[in-house]
Specification:
Blueprint lengths: L4 H8 L4 H7 L1 H4 L28 H18 L9 E7 L4 H14 L16 E6 L10 H10 L19 H4 L7 H7 L3 E9 L3 H7 L15 H5 L5 H7 L7 E5 L27 H8 L4 E3 L2 H5 L9 E4 L8 H4 L9 H12 L6 E7 L1 H7 L3 H21 L5 E7 L2 E2 L1 E3 L2 E2 L10 E3 L10 E2 L11 E6 L47 E4 L5 E2 L3 E6 L9 E3 L2 H8 L2 H9 L18 H7 L2
This protein binds zinc ion (ZN).
């Protein structure tokens, strides 16, 4: 069933790969498709190595592999083999976001919210993920998704590129393009997919297939003249030019990145194509996949015979897709994330070799940046529905589902709201943890004003004002004897409906956009290899746990040269060469 992989394998593999392939022969000789990789599926031992004085990409790769192998051995998860892998990425889906979303989901259903469990909260295995990047304490979506997809931590803003080059340095990034799980799957003859509610060229989906030292180069119009002269190619072009058969499925927003400058958008009169190179990437994709189907609205997607569709490209909005809250108002009709997930799996599961799929709930992050808890929770609930749809369409005996976030946000719970208090409402409960014996009621702040359970440490929800200390920075201790000196500065919410979808929760630090947070996020897992997700993992170990429990991916990793003769991952991350080869071939 290795239809295209040999050409793709050459494209992904470095020049010195032939010798490495010979060295890996002992691992890679299993000939029959069914047996392929079976010998490598037993538990492996990857001894940890000393941390070098500088953190190199090679060290991150090996350290991640060692952490994955150790977590797997502790859980006795060795030998579990996945055929299919689905990574669900809730962008910015922090632990408070999950907790608030499950409370809202339960309250909407008329049942107890606090004990309600979203689909993935019912998974049997979970771990914490440390999200810092090589250069940032609080990370962005580009470097974090690169860690998840390549097994190597890198800098903020980098997509599928190691920490070595400077940001925006196209020439310096050449040779530093790290092979992603999706590329590995394609080389191994598996089907591949990426589905998102953002532009399909946005940081998270781009990190499944693309390589650039600048996340903003989504369309050629965004590239610097130097980057263009040096041959760098925007993410929309990388998606369509992807080697081999290309991605089997790609769905999301971002049509204007694919259409030539000035070209009319089929849905919105105000949107036009943005490409300066004149390429119509939709037309090119359609020509390259004569049996494939391109759709841009719900009606067209619904009309497809997906079980007999070999490739699928869906671009449902000129830019990001709508929030779930606005989706049904879209004139042309837009599928939900759950509908896209089911459609993608129906196409992907035609391949007996299995598939790799990434599904992003991308607008959880956007709503949090906007300081709007309602949409963030609503998007998280829609994301959980997509996970449920994937469970319904797959078999847990052969499909590993991993649900995680790239980074946190600053939204948090405040006060002591009583059990069952509306999660988007004002705190009704005890004033402090010290008067638990009293009858709960209105729980005002120190100025006598009500406040909401959910709030932000930064962002547009800042309401201005000061407190009893003179203007400027405040000093500890600010509130001796638990009596706040603040008497003014907060708005009176008594007559404000804070459960309104458009209400912005208050923020401490005024910023145009609320910021990410730096603490751990969660990983939930189900299926073969899921037991290896436990403890507190570095984010790049996610790649290694997935690869070590998916025989086709693990064999491919070794065939491409990242293992020793015993099949143990070595200090040698894989570098993708197709972009360089393409440039040389011009
Ligand atoms: Zn963000």
């Amino acid at each position: 069933m290795n239809r295209l992989p040999s050409a793709l394998r050459r494209a992904l593999c470095s020049a010195g790969c032939a010798a490495l392939l010979a060295g890996c022969a002992g691992v890679a000789t299993a000939p029959a498709a069914a047996d392929r990789g079976a010998a490598t599926a037993a538990a492996i031992s990857v001894p940890a190595i000393a941390r070098p004085s500088g953190e190199t990409p090679a060290w991150w790769f090996r350290a991640g592999a060692a952490q994955a192998a150790a977590a797997s051995a502790q859980a006795q998860a060795g030998g579990q083999r996945a055929k299919n892998v689905i990574v669900f990425l809730g962008d910015g889906m922090s632990l408070p976001t999950i907790a608030a979303a499950h409370i809202l989901a339960g309250q909407r259903a008329g049942v107890d919210g606090e004990s309600y469990r979203l689909s993935f909260e019912q998974f049997p295995f979970s771990a914490l993920s440390r999200t810092y990047e090589t250069d940032q304490q609080t990370p962005d979506s580009a470097g974090t998704m690169t860690a998840i997809m390549t097994g190597v931590k890198t800098r903020a803003g980098y997509i599928g590129v190691s920490q070595v080059p400077r940001r925006d340095d196209c020439a310096g990034s050449r040779g530093q393009e790290l092979v992603t799980t999706l590329e590995l799957a394609a080389a191994a003859g598996m089907s591949t997919g990426a589905v998102t509610t953002t532009r399909i060229t946005h940081a998270t989906p781009a990190a499944t297939y693309g390589h650039l030292p600048e996340r903003n180069w989504e369309v050629d119009a965004e590239l610097t003249p130097e980057a263009k002269a040096q041959g760098c190619k925007d993410f929309a072009a990388q998606l369509v030019d992807f080697p081999g058969g290309g991605l089997t499925v790609a769905m999301g927003g971002g049509r204007t990145e694919f259409l030539p400058a000035g070209a009319a958008d089929p849905e919105h009169a105000t949107a036009v194509g943005r490409r300066l190179d004149g390429r119509n990437l939709v037309a090119e994709w359609t020509a390259r996949h004569p049996q494939g189907r391109y759709v841009w609205n719900q009606h067209q997607l619904d009309a497809l015979d997906l079980a007999h569709t070999p490739q699928l490209l869906g671009l449902f909005e000129p830019s990001h897709m709508h929030y779930e809250h606005e989706r049904l108002h879209d004139a042309a009709g837009e599928p939900s994330l759950a509908q896209m997930t089911t459609a993608a799996i129906t196409v992907l599961r035609q391949n007996p070799n299995g598939f790799f799929l990434m599904v992003e709930g991308g607008r959880i992050d956007h709503a949090l940046h906007a300081g709007n808890a309602f949409r963030a929770l609503d998007e998280t609930i829609a994301f959980a529905e997509a996970v449920k749809a994937a469970q319904a369409a797959t078999d847990p005996a052969d499909t590993l589902i991993v649900v995680t976030a790239d980074h946190s946000h600053t939204m948090t719970f405040a006060g002591y709201p009583r059990r069952g208090n509306p999660i988007l409402g004002k705190v009704q409960g005890h004033t402090s943890s010290y008067d638990e014996g009293s009858t709960p009621g209105n729980a005002p702040d120190a100025t006598g004003l009500p406040y909401t359970t959910l709030g932000f440490a930064s962002g547009p929800g800042y309401t201005g004002a000061s407190d009893r200390q003179s203007e400027g920075p405040k000093h500890y201790p600010h509130a001796p004897n638990h009596i706040s000196p603040a008497t003014q500065g907060r708005p009176n919410l008594t007559d404000v409906d804070t459960t309104d979808p458009d209400y912005l929760q208050e923020a401490t630090v005024p910023l145009k956009a609320e910021t990410h947070g730096g603490e751990d996020v969660a990983i939930f897992a189900n299926g073969p290899g899921a037991a290896a997700f436990h403890g507190e993992l570095e984010q790049n170990a996610i790649f290694h746990i997935i690869v070590q429990h998916t025989p086709r991916l693990r064999t491919e990793l070794c065939q491409l040269g990242s293992c020793n003769a015993a099949g143990v991952p070595v200090e040698r991350p894989l570098y993708s060469r197709w972009l360089q080869q393409e440039q040389q071939g011009r």
